[in-house]
Specification:
The complex is a heterodimer of chains A (about 350) and B (about 200). Chain A has about 350 residues and is mostly helical. In chain A, about 60% of the residues lie in helices and about 0% in strands. In chain A, α5 crosses α10. The longest helix of chain A has 21 residues. Chain A is globular. Chain B has about 200 residues and is of the alpha/beta class. Chain B has a single domain, classed as Rossmann fold. In chain B, about 30% of the residues lie in helices and about 25% in strands. Chain B starts with a strand and ends in a 9-residue tail after the last strand. The chains are: A mainly alpha (about 350), B alpha/beta (about 200). At the A-B interface, α6, α14 and α17 of A face β2 of B. Chain A: GO terms for molecular function: GTPase activator activity; small GTPase binding. Chain A: Pfam families: RabGAP-TBC (PF00566).
Chain lengths: ~350, ~200
């Protein structure tokens, strides 16, 4: 891996970009120094491109002109440290050429072109390089875990709203504190646990559907794997998936389960009417990202209902599930089952 | 239209060889140069007609990264056919096909039919795997080999249809067609039906 350019870029002066520069972030003609500290691509900032209306004090060291307001909030909730850049830059500087790392690097490079290719920012060299640096740093930090497909969509969705170093930190925090690491380990132990919880909740909350799935031999990993590994970021269009991420930062896996249940509940009638396993899967697993626009229509309770991912996230957020039970199910499945 | 048979087939191969692109080209007739990477598995279906038999192909398109191999048995377990894809410009991806064949022989349905697809044939100049070598290997394991290009569409229909034919052949030889009771009574209007003509020219070797 050629780590040299990163070093040079990392030490450029920390010039604060002017607001009008912020809006033109995809323009490649900007000086290289700025490319390293690229700006969020989202449309969350105010018209001047500033994130100035943040409620925390002016001196908040996290407040970066490179992140939008939402991402700034996420950083606070997740607990991104104030000196987030130091470790990130350090890791980028660290050369690593073990066989294991190089294999991961190959996979990362392979996936760069295949991460939100329809989004102009990620089809540009600048965006891809940023994403690559973040994924490389995350991989170096967690070399034992390595890079696993799915991380690319998560990192890109964060990077869309914030700076590289903050994305890097949020990835670390998601992997550790929110236990996403378990999802990506060999044999996917975390995924299996989440499937177990979803199965349990399904049986309690939507018993007819649970039974139907059993009869049709639909196991939850069939539809949960993508959702769980990417926190819906691969499926839901990039411009809307921030709602999911924001709520996940706030409520953790509880929000994830609530959203899954909400989707299943709204699809229940259709799914119960589906006569084969394949029909069920084609309803529940739209194939291409574009199909997910149609998918939202399927989730409407009535034809007139106005529904968006934003609204769905809000409904899910305010839903109630017994988190005590859920956390017990996650930690001690046997004793939880006895108890309830 | 009534469906006589339903076959489950699975696409396997290393990452980025074009499994999703092949499936998409076949089922939807589309090619997207910028396909997203697959996590876990996608599911697609297509109705075809071979001779007088109408068949519904349930295609499970799997993820290529090694880590996801642990989940693959869920998808190939009941599969009757496997499309093993390699990229003609990537030597490693061919060896991955070989390792998949080994695994399927041990773990999958013993009657599973294989078809090997050497994809990205539009990049002939960058070819790293000699066609003869691939064909010889396919012959050795009793599989058909097709040169495909999801980009141009070359060999795509042929390779999927070949799987269906192989499965049909195997069934008629063993004399026990798997006739799905669910399939018999179902009316399919979703996918357009395609009548498969007798072997088309090109593609197969």
């Amino acid at each position: 891996m050629s780590s040299k350019p990163y070093i040079e870029l990392a030490y450029v002066k920390k010039a604060k970009p002017k607001p009008n520069e912020l809006r033109d972030a995809t323009v490649d003609s900007r000086p290289k120094s700025f490319q390293f500290r690229h700006v969020a691509q989202c449309f969350c900032s105010d018209t001047n491109g500033n994130s100035s209306k943040i409620t925390c004090s002016e001196s908040c060291p996290l407040k970066s002109p490179l992140s939008c307001r939402k991402a700034h909030k996420w950083c606070h909730i997740a607990g991104v440290p104030h000196n987030s850049e130091a470790l990130y830059v350090e890791l980028l500087k660290t050369p690593l050429s073990t066989r294991k790392y190089l294999t991961h690097l190959d996979q990362i490079e392979m996936d760069l072109l295949r991460t939100f290719p329809d989004v102009p920012y990620f089809s540009s060299e600048v965006g891809r390089e940023s994403l690559k640096r973040v994924l490389c740093a995350v991989t170096k930090y967690n070399i034992k875990l390595g890079y696993v497909q799915g991380m690319n969509f998560l990192a890109a969705s964060l990077l869309y709203h914030t700076s590289e170093s903050q994305t890097f930190w949020m990835m670390l925090i998601l992997l550790d504190k929110y236990e996403l690491k378990e999802n990506f380990k060999p044999d996917f132990p975390g995924l299996m646990r989440h499937c177990y919880v979803v199965d349990f909740l399904l049986e309690r909350r939507l018993p007819r559907l649970g039974q139907h799935f059993k009869e049709m031999m639909i196991t939850s990993p069939m539809f949960l794997t993508d959702w769980c590994l990417t926190l819906f970021t691969r499926q839901i269009p990039l411009r809307y998936n921030y709602k999911i991420l924001g709520n996940f930062f706030k409520q953790g896996w509880g929000f994830f389960y609530k959203l899954v249940l909400l989707i299943l509940r709204r699809l229940e009638t259709r799914l119960l009417a589906a006569a084969t396993r394949e029909d069920i899967l084609s309803i529940i697993k739209p194939f291409q990202p574009g199909d997910w626009k149609e998918f939202v229509k399927l989730l409407k309770n009535s034809r007139l209902e106005k529904l968006s991912w934003k609204k769905l996230a809000k409904i899910a957020k305010n839903d109630n599930i017994d988190m005590e039970l859920v956390s017990e199910l996650l930690e001690r499945p046997e004793s939880a089952l006895e108890k309830y | 239209m009534e469906v006589d048979r339903e076959f489950k087939i699975v696409t396997l191969g290393e990452g980025r060889v074009g499994k999703t692109s092949l499936a998409m080209r076949y089922v939807r007739g589309q090619f997207n140069e910028k396909e997203q990477s697959t996590t876990n598995a996608n599911f697609l279906e297509k109705n075809i007609r071979i001779n007088e038999t109408s068949i519904k192909l349930n295609i499970w398109d799997t993820a290529g990264q090694e880590r996801f191999r642990a989940l693959a048995p869920n998808y190939y377990r009941e599969a009757k056919g496997a499309l093993l894809v390699y990229d003609i410009t990537d030597k490693e991806s061919f060896w991955k096909v070989v390792s998949w064949v080994e695994e399927l022989k041990m773990q999958a349905d013993k009657d599973i039919s294989f078809v090997i697809a050497g994809n990205k044939c539009d990049l002939e100049l960058d070819r790293q795997i000699p066609k003869e070598q691939a064909i010889a290997y396919a012959k050795q394991i009793g599989a058909a080999h097709y040169s495909t290009s999801a980009k141009s569409g070359m060999g795509v229909n042929e390779c999927f249809e070949e799987i269906a034919k192989l499965i049909l052949d195997k069934e008629s030889r063993s004399g026990s067609p798997i006739r799905s009771s669910k399939a018999r009574s179902r009316v399919i209007v979703k996918n357009q039906e395609e009548v498969v003509k007798k072997k088309k020219s090109g593609g197969c070797c």
